[in-house]
Amino acid sequence: MKTDDNTRTMEIPIEEFGKTAKKIEEEIRKVIVGQAEIIRGVIIALIAEGHVLLEGVPGLGKTMLIRTLSEVLDLEFSRIQFTPDLMPADIIGTNILSEDGAGNKALTYQQGPIFANLVLADEINRATPKTQSSLLEAMQERSVTVGTKTRKLPSPFFVMATQNPLEMEGTYPLPEAQLDRFFFKLLVPYPEDLELLEIMNRTTISTVPKVSKVASGEMILNMSALAKEVLVASHVAEYGIKVMLATHPDKEFAPKSVKQFARYGSSPRGAQALFLAAKIRALLDGRYNVAFEDFREVAMPALRHRILLNYEAVMEGVTSDALVKDILDVIQPG
Q: 20 to 30 Å CA-CA from 223: which of 41, 42, 97, 177?
């Protein structure tokens, strides 16, 4: 089900917010084994009207996750397989010459797969920068322009892109400015022994788990509107800002590792992601105010892709995750 930007949102009680989110998680877990943090991160980004970049080796259920999410929500789903020969028109659509019964010819617009509520951009780093940018423009502007006409994308609009960290030959890594447009970057872990056994039990039998639709696009928009009303006390907000600013090596309170290994820190989008994700996490916990712990829990997925490492860090194998961890160790609440 598509909805447009004119859909009115209505205030919902905080209990309904938590209950709906819990139902979505429960339905997804009927299909996806483990990965609790990944599922929670995807739901937070969806409610925040952001987008998610999932990184993990093949076969960990990244595609299955968003497909299951589309089945749980009454929303339209589209999958785009990124390849080197994929063109922007294959994503956003194009004007084609058509002819009616009377022989009259005219240009008509044929929509691309971007016109859906939930879009899976599979292996996004395998397409050329020109094709990547067409998707990322749609993510930022929530509209596409073909010829002289701009068309709005449906709302809610959520993109989940995947990339494989191992097979980097023949790929086009996303530039930092484009990575910045993702609300969260989530690293999909390899399953534990017991989780792997449960995956085998579920996938090597003839019975396929069934999920139910538990929320609509309108409900997601209502949840998003409620999240924006959550209060952040001044001293808590100052802590969140300090965590983000500590990613910059020129700040005196930045950890030693950041000063040594980071070239640039997070943009203001990182602070926006921190604050909105913290608000949603508070609501999921049944609170109408943000706590220090909310910022600390969402800092890693919100900031890891917004820290640009220098050459020394690359040579020594230092990751942005390690820098975010150091920041949380050094920048303490209070």
A: 177
pTM for the predicted model, two decimal places? 0.88
Structure tokens of 72?
């749980």
Domains in the chain, start-ordered, CATH in brackets? 14-222 (3.40.50.300), 230-330 (1.10.8.80)
Structure tokens at 250: 């020129």
Give 182's contacts (C-beta < 8 A, 6+ positions apart): 50, 51, 52, 53, 161, 305
- Residue written as token pair 């877990």: 29
pLDDT in tens, the chain (334 residues): 555 544 445 577 788 888 899 999 988 888 887 788 899 999 999 999 999 999 887 766 777 888 888 889 888 889 999 988 989 888 888 877 777 667 777 777 788 899 999 999 988 888 888 888 888 778 888 888 877 788 898 889 999 998 877 666 667 888 888 889 999 999 987 777 787 777 777 777 767 778 888 888 889 999 999 999 898 999 999 999 999 999 999 999 999 999 999 999 999 999 999 999 999 999 999 888 999 999 999 999 999 999 999 999 999 999 999 999 999 999 988 7
